[in-house]
Amino acid sequence: MSSKLLRGTFILTLGTMISKVLGLFYVIPFYKIVGSEGTLLYQYSYVPYTIFISIATAGVPLAVSKFISKYNALEEYAVGRKLFKSGLLIMLASGITSFFVLFFSAPMLAEIIINDNDLKSKPSDVVTVIRAVSFALIIIPFMSLIRGFFQGHQSMGPSAVSQVVEQIVRIIFLLAGAFVVLNVLKGSLVTAVSVATFAAFIGGLGSLGVLFWYWYKRKPHLDQLLEQDKRQMDISLKDMYKEIIIYSIPFVLIGIANPLFQMIDLLTFNRAMTSIGLTHISEDALSILNYQTHKLVIIPVSLATAFSLTLVPSITKAFIEQDQNNMNRQLNQTFQVLLFLTLPAAVGLSLLAEPIYRVFYEHDLLGAEVLRTYAPVAMLFALFSVTAAILQGLDEQKFTILSLLVGILVKLSLNIPLIKLFETHGAILATALGYGVAILINMYVIKSHSKYRFRLVLRRGLLIVIFTIIMFVAAGVTYKILLLFLSPTSVIQSLAMISICALVGAGIYFFLGIKSKLVYFLFGQRVDRLMRKLRLKT
Q: Where would one find coiled-coil regions in this protein (predicted)?
C-alpha cells in the first residue's frame, strides 16, 4: 500500500473516530437540557431519518468512490467527472424526494408510534420533530456524493474534515438551540427538540461549506487531470449506474440494519407495553432502551469493528487469488481480534452499568438494569457487521441481504410477545435473537464458500472467554469493595469506581493476553512498539 493511501486512510479513520466520539459525548449535556422525554422525542424522529438518509444516498457515495478510483487508475478521468456531474443531480433529486416522503408521511408514522392517549408524547409532537429533521435529507445525499468524489481521487482530507465540522456545527447548534428555547425563550420541549433535530440540516450546511472550499482549492489540479485523459473509453450513464447499484445495495442494507431493528421497537414497544397495562412507564423505558443505553452499547462495537474491517481487503485479495492458507489466516485473525476487543468491553460495560449510566445521564435503576442486559448484545452487533463485510469480500453479498431480512423477520415476529413477557428486556432478547440468526446464516455461508474451519477461532475464543471471566471476577470483587466506600448515585464517585475497576480489569486481561502470547498472535509487532512507548519493555 502506498504511503499516500496509508496517510489518506489514517486521516479518514481519524476523522470518523473524532466524529463518533463527539456524537457520543454530546448526549451528556443534551440529556441534562431536555431529559428523558426530550431524548425520546429526538429518537422518534432520528431513527426514521437515519433509514431515509441511507435509502436516499443508496450507498452511491461509496460506490462512486470505488468507480472513480477504478477509472482514474486507467487514466480515464473524464469518465469519473461525467459520473460526478450526473450523480449530483440524481442525489439532489433523491434527497428532495426523500424529504417530501418523510415530511408528508410523518402523521402516519406518528399515529403508529403513539397509539394511546395516555402516553406522554402526542402524535402532533412526533409529527413536528420528524418534519424538523426531514429538511436535512435535501442536502446530505448531495454532500455525501462530493465526499465520494474526493475519496475516489485518494483525497481523504476533505471527507475527514467535513465530517468533523458537520458534527461540531450540528452539536453546537443542537445544544445551544435546545438550551435557548427552554431556558431563555421559555419555549416548549417539542420546540426545543425540533430545533435539536433541525441541527442535522445546519451541520450539513457546515460540511457542504468545507467541501465547496476544498473544491475551489483542488479544481485546478482536477482540471489538469482531465487534460491527461486518454479518451479511450466512453461509458454510458446507464452502464455506470448499473455497476454502481449492484455494488451499493448490500452496503445500504448493512448500514440500516441497526436503525431497522430500532424502528421495529419504535413501532411496537408502546403498543406492547400498553397491552399489559404499563402505559405509564412505556415511553421512559423506550427512551432508555432506544436512546440512552443504545448510545453506550455501541461504544465497544466501534473500535473492534473498525480494526477488524481493515483486514477485509486482505481476505478479498486471498479469495480472488485462491490462496486458501492466507485466507484462513486472515479470517482467523479477524474473528479473534473482534472477540478479544469486544467481549471484555461488553462484559465490563455490563458489570459497571450503574455508575456508567449515572455518569452519562442520571442515577436510574431501570436504566442501569437495561444497560446491564443490553451490553452483551454489542458482541452480536460487531459480529454481524464483520461477517457481512467478509461476505462482501467473498462476493456473496446476496446472502447478507438474506440473513438481514431473516433477522428482521425474527425481531418483528418476537418483539411484541417477548415485550409482553419480559417488558423492556423482551425487546433486547428479540434483538439478540434476530441478530443471532442473521450471524449464523452468515457464518454458514462463509464456511461453505471459503472452506474455512472455525476450529482455531473456537479454541482461542475459549481462551478469551476464560480471560474475560477472570477479568470479570477481579473487577467485580473490586467493584463490590468500592461500593462499601463509594456510591453510584454521585457522578464523581461513579467516575472513580469506573476508573479503578477498568484499570484492574484491563490490567489483568492484557497481562493474561501477554503471558499467553495471544496478544502477539493477534497484533504482532504493534504490541512491542506500544509497550516500549509506555516504557513497559526495553
A: none
Would you give per-residue pLDDT tens digits along the chain (538 residues)?
445 555 665 676 677 778 778 888 899 899 999 999 999 999 999 999 988 888 777 666 667 777 777 777 777 777 778 878 888 888 888 899 999 999 999 999 999 888 767 788 899 999 999 999 999 999 998 888 888 888 777 777 888 889 899 999 999 999 999 999 999 999 999 999 999 999 999 999 999 999 999 999 888 887 787 777 677 666 777 777 776 776 676 667 777 889 999 999 999 999 999 999 999 899 999 999 999 999 999 888 876 666 555 556 667 677 777 778 888 888 888 888 889 989 999 999 999 999 999 999 999 999 999 999 999 999 999 999 888 888 877 878 788 889 999 999 999 999 999 999 999 999 999 999 999 999 999 999 998 888 888 888 899 999 999 999 999 999 999 999 999 999 999 999 999 999 999 999 999 999 999 899 888 888 766 666 666 565 555 5
Question: How far is 206 from 167, CA to CA, in rounded Å?
Answer: 9
Residue 444 has which C-alpha cell? 454458514
Calpha distance 452→388 (Å, rounded): 15
Q: Measured between alpha carbons, how far is residue 316 from residues 73, 226, 392 in Å?
A: 19, 31, 8
Residue 101 CA to residue 378 CA, distance in Å, equals 32
- Rounded to an integer, what distance in angstroms lies between the CA atom of residue 348 and that of residue 332? 24
Are 479 and 501 contacting, i.e. CB atoms less than 8 angstroms apart?
A: yes
For cell 492466507, name the residue: 326
- Long-range Cβ contact pairs of 279-286 (< 8 A, separation 24 or more): 279/116, 279/118, 279/119, 280/118, 281/366, 282/119, 283/37, 283/40, 283/119, 283/120, 283/121, 284/36, 284/37, 284/40, 284/366, 285/366, 285/370, 285/423, 285/424, 286/40
Contact yes or no for 281/265 (Cβ under 8 A): no
Shortest CA distance to 136 belongs to which of 197, 59, 224, 191? 197
All three cell numbers of 7, joined, read 496517510
Query: Which of 57, 84, 435 shows the shortest CA–CA distance to 237?
Result: 84
The closest alpha carbon to 233, from 459, 118, 77, 94, belongs to: 77
DSSP annotation of 454: -
Q: Is 186 exposed, middle or buried (0-12, 13-18, 19+ CB in 10 A)?
A: exposed
Q: Please give the Cα distance from 174 to 178 (Å, whole number).
A: 6
Residues 6 or more apart whose CB falls under 8 angstroms from that of 209 comprise 165
Reading the block at residue 231, the C-alpha cell is 479518451
Integer Cα distance of 19 and 6 in angstroms? 20
Distances (CA, A) of 58 to 46, 204, 395: 18, 18, 19
- The type of residue at 32 is K
Q: Are 449 and 394 in contact (CB under 8 A)?
A: yes
The cell numbers describing 89, all together, are 443531480
Please identify which residue in the block is written with the cell numbers 435473537: 433
